[in-house]
Amino acid sequence: MNYFDILFIALNTAAAAGLYFLAGYAVRVLSCKWRVCYIIPALICLVLMVLKGREISLLPAYIGALIPIAGFIKDNEKIRKSASIISAVLTVAAVPVCLLNDGYRAIDYVKDFKDGFNCMKKHYVLAEHKNVDWDSLYDEYLPQFKAVDDDVENYIAWLKFCAEFHDGHVGFAPDDTDIEDAVNERVFGNDYGLSLVTLSDGRIAAVNVDETLAEYGISTGTIITEWDGTDPLEAAEKSEAFSAKGFADRDNEAFYKAVFAAGTGGDSVTVGFIDESGNEKEAVLPKLGFYADRAEKTIEILNGGVETGHLMWVEINEKTACLRIKAMMFDSDSDKTGDFSKMKNGIIEKVDEYRAENFENIVLDLRDNVGGSSDVVKVIAEIFSPEGEHYYATDGKWDDEAGCYLTDKATGKFVEGKENFYTGENLWGHGKVIILVNANSVSAADHLTMIMRGHENVTVVGFTEPNGSAQGIGGIELESGQFIFSNALLLDENGDVFIDSGANYESGNDIDVRVLLDEAAVTALFVNGEDYLMQKALEAVE
Predict the structure, then answer these.
(1) Buried b (16+ CB within 10 A) or exposed e, 203-223
(2) What is the CATH number of domain 189-301?
(3) What fold does the segment set 305-541 form as a domain?
(4) Which of 173, 202, 290, 542 has the most CB atoms lying inside 10 A of its own CB?
């Protein structure tokens, strides 16, 4: 049972017992002040209902809390004792009712959806930019939430709803984090012993292949031509995991799409492939288990950054040092005060050291960077950008009276507010800066990529672009979890939305060098375990 409910029942039972013994004493001392005590159970009930909400299974206890009021109305020992006994019995009777009721404290998933939807509809700053059709979304997803039976189904429904916005800042975090594995097993589907990737020439290759598939002639790098009678990319669209992912940029979606195909199918799947002799063959692969772990491992290999701690330095070779940045954060004190001078001084100290040792390249590894503070972005940009003032972004202009960001009625564009700048110090002016990104380089990592990639000494490299989501976030706390979305507006110097894709599904946060995922990349990543992106980045700046 819920702790609040146990507390309520315990307090109510104890109060009923106390009121029973008080009944005789109150009559003997002939004082009216004791009658006030007989409304205490009702007050306890009211407070706990406000804190935790009503629960139909506790109805006997609610009634039991009201019964002692008879002792407040009637100054009679017999009535007060009888009311106390009845109150205690009804309160205790609520325990088996709660335990036997499958709907006890059940979350109202439909109410959660409606509350989250209405909050987002009111405050989502990218609604017009993305041409959001709120009515269609509501009509599509309300029946899905009405069909939800448990937390797992609820989380999946939220993931699919969030994916509709192609915005990395739209998300749902369930209160019960223990359901993650169950959700992943459900949405990723079955494991048939391999994963798939799309090569840069459009072919589909097997990767992360189980050794048992060798008997069929399938190994890492084998070209897959068909998946259960259809094109693998068409099969991917049947994957619940794919529909729940919600990439913010269409190019990034295309890069990862094939991974999701390999989980679609039943107890077995028929796979068409090209064997080592160049002949097309078929194999029926049995289900080995759930695909979630293999899919996540494949994505981890594709995305893998330098394996070291956050804001730690690694020497890649005799002339290249790498700063691993997993988040635009430093420590809790800096986050609270906004003073990141300790972080800045630490980076500068290492930069000076590498300059003295004649290093030529510094790599900023932003792969899988989860975002964070714009103040951290400025610290890093100040250190490595050319000297002078540089433009960052422009705040949208907020209207307090209307409770929204202002738009120009003539142009339909947002009205620009304060412009933000940072001052470059060019502390690595003699050398080159390489920024490594992937589709999980999100939010503040998107910011850093956007404001630095135009500098002459900076090269941004990736298999994919960064995530493509840049606005500030807010949200609403629901009964089943927290729902967040973009609610604070940033614009670029042209007055357009900063980074986030519009209806065209293109973020525009491009990269300088797109590394091809070809046969050499597959072998390096999935056979040799090498950091292929790092290798190609260093080649690119030579």
Answers:
(1) bbbbbbbbeebeebebbbebb
(2) 2.30.42.10
(3) 2-enoyl-CoA Hydratase; Chain A, domain 1 (3.90.226)
(4) 290
Sign of CA pseudo-dihedral 435, 445, 452, 356: negative
Tokens 């000076």 label which residue? 352
β-partners of residue 268 are: 286
Look up the pTM and report it: 0.85
pLDDT (tens digit per residue) in 496-514: 999 999 999 999 899 999 9
Of all residues in the chain, what percent carry a pLDDT higher than 90? 77
Starting at the edge strand found earlier in the chain, the sheet holding 416-424 runs 416-424, 388-396, 490-491
pLDDT computed for residue 31 by the predictor? 60
- Quick one: which of 171, 147, 151 has its CA closest to 161? 171
Which residue from 313, 312, 307 is spatially nearest to 367, judged by alpha carbons? Answer: 307
Q: Which residues of 298-328 are buried (b: 16+ CB within 10 A; e: fewer)?
A: bbebbbbbbeeeebebeebeeebbbbbbbbb
Q: Is the pLDDT of residue 308 over 80?
A: yes
* Token output for 99: 């335990």
CB of 436 closer than 8 Å to CB of 364: yes
pLDDT top residue among 71 and 101: 71
pLDDT-derived band at 307, boundaries 50, 70, 90: very high
Say how many CA atoms lie within 13 Å of 222 toward its Cβ: 28
What would the pLDDT profile of 250-280 be if each residue is shown by its tens digit?
A: 999 999 999 999 999 999 999 999 999 999 9
Helix intervals (H) in 53-133: 59-66, 69-73, 77-100, 109-123
B/e letters for 461-496, b = 16+ CB within 10 Å, e = fewer, are bbbbbbbbbbbebbbbebebbebbbbbebbbbeeee
Please answer whether residues 456 and 541 qualify as being in contact, where contact means their C-beta atoms are separated by less than 8 angstroms. no
Report, as an integer, the average pLDDT of 66-89: 88
Domain coordinates of the chain in residue numbers?
A: 3-100, 189-301, 305-541
Residue 29 clears pLDDT 70, i.e. is over it: no
Check residue 4 and give its pLDDT.
78
Q: What angle do CA 66, 72, 75 make, to 5 degrees?
A: 135
> Are 189-301 and 305-541 the same fold in CATH?
no
Q: Give one word for 496, left, alpha or beta, with left for phi > 0 and alpha for psi -120 to 50.
A: beta
Stretch 140-152: mean pLDDT? 95
